Amino acid sequence: MKKLTDKELEKIKKICEDIEEKVYLDGGWKHHSGGFATCDMFNYDDDFVDLKVKEGIVNDVEDRVYSRQLKIDRKTMEVSE
């Protein structure tokens, strides 16, 4: 398995930041106390980078967390489910 290059890591970081912002805003989480969205890389191979996206509300009243996995194609840097 080939290691991720610095350039790939930089692109992945930007993609994760964009996903976090889109999920946070589109999901309406900014309107709730404790609303959040995160996107983290958890695995990769020669072809794909695996991401875990979590979103929801965690505060003293609610604890709702939803998660899903996405993939980034290492050649095209396209995100898919």
How many angstroms separate the termini? 22 Å
> In sequence order, what are the helices and strands, one letter per element?
HEEEE
User: What class do helices, strands and sheet pairing give?
Assistant: alpha+beta
Total number of domains: 1
Q: Write down how many β-strands occur, each being a DSSP E stretch of 2 or more residues.
A: 4
Helix content: 25-40%
Q: Which features characterize this protein?
A:
81 residues; alpha+beta; four-stranded antiparallel β-sheet; 1 helix
Q: Care to describe what's here?
A:
- By secondary structure, the protein is of the alpha+beta class.
- The protein has one domain.
- The protein has one helix at residues 6-26; strands at 35-44, 48-58, 63-73, 79-80.
- The longest helix is centred in the N-terminal third of the chain and has 21 residues, at 6-26.
- It is elongated and about 45 Å long.
- The mean pLDDT is 96.
Brief digest:
With 81 residues, the chain is of the alpha+beta class. The chain has one helix spanning 6-26; strands at residues 35-44, 48-58, 63-73, 79-80.
